[in-house]
Amino acid sequence: MSDTAAVPRGLVGGLARACHPVPAAAVTALAGAMAAGAGRGLAGTLLTGGAVAVGQLSIGWSNDLIDRQRDEAAGRSDKPLAVGRLTSRQVSSAARWAIVCCVLLSAACGIAAATVHLVAVAAGWAYNLRLKATRWSWLPYALAFALLPAFVTLALPGRPWPAASVLGAGSLLGVSAHFANVLPDLAADRAANIRGLPQRAGARASALVAVLAATAAALLLAPGWPVLAVTAPPAVAALLAPRGRLPFLAVIAATAVAVALLLLNGGLCSGS
Predict the structure, then answer these.
(1) How far apart are CA 140 and CA 175, in angstroms?
(2) pLDDT band of 200, cuts 50, 70, 90
(3) What 3-state DSSP class applies to 112?
(4) Between residues 272 and 6, the one the model is more confident about
């Protein structure tokens, strides 16, 4: 009985590690916060968060599936597929079920909202399949993060689009997230011939782009010195240590400011 019980626990734990849990949780939390701030109510917020969560799961699992051979060659002990804790069939099956759930939960938010969300998820898959190794690696992030608030607002009565400043801020946050997320693996990516824009630019330039894009997103929502007072210190620190954790902290600080401004001051929609 103990052996039988250990299999599901190992499977669940492996899938949890393979889904890229930190970015998946961050994007899901961001979507839930926007839905709550836009007045979707408890049911609408849970529905939005659920749709985004399973979409992110599918993207994370597809990433590890596509990169399995590369991760094995690099000796990535943090990748369950690369060390044999999971099989390709298990991860592929999980990704397929995640896509099915994503379509169903998104459709429950309305056709318009579902369309933009599925385009955003498709952008994540396009990044995994091809664009991550090209100079256009930033584009799926910019598109997906811009469409995230649209997924929220298009489920509201009247199906309004977000304000232009919100779309722009979302796109900038996507670019920031891309450059910050790639920083720790720049050397390994170059060795594996992954030549996305951050890999071409180098660590210091990528840290600069990550920090400036996140700060610009916050300033787009609320220009002024209070934003700079929060984001400037970690930004400067990030530039001094571009390969460490500081760029991530700088991006998180600027993103937190941007989201707080979005929810507390202007709202998501034009004229709100």
Answers:
(1) 9
(2) very high
(3) helix
(4) 272
Whether the CB-CB separation of 196 and 237 falls below 8 Å is answered with no
Question: What's the predicted TM-score (pTM) here?
Answer: 0.87
Q: Collapse the DSSP code of 136 into the 3-class scheme (helix H, G, I; strand E, B; otherwise coil) and give the result.
A: coil
Q: Return the structure tokens found at 66.
A: 């596509």
Helix, strand, coil percent values for the chain (each to nearest 5): 80, 0, 20
Q: Cα dihedral sign for 231, 232, 234, 238?
A: positive
* Torsion on CA atoms 19, 21, 27, 32, rounded to nearest 10: 110
SS3 (DSSP) at 171: helix
CATH class of segment(s) 1-134: mainly alpha
The tokens of 144 are what? Answer: 């997906």
How many Å is the Cα radius of gyration of the chain? Answer: 19
pLDDT tens, position by position, 51-104: 999 999 999 999 999 999 888 887 888 899 988 899 999 999 999 999 999 999
| Side chain identity, residue 37 | G
Give the separation between CA 31 and CA 89, rounded to whole angstroms: 30
Range from 3-7, 134-138, 198-202 that averages highest in pLDDT: 134-138
Paired tokens of 3: 């052996």
User: Residue 269 forms beta bridges with which residues?
Assistant: 162
Could you tell me which of 74, 207, 54 has the C-alpha nearest to residue 124? 54
Domain ranges of the chain: 1-134, 162-272
Contact 126, 159 (CB under 8 A): no
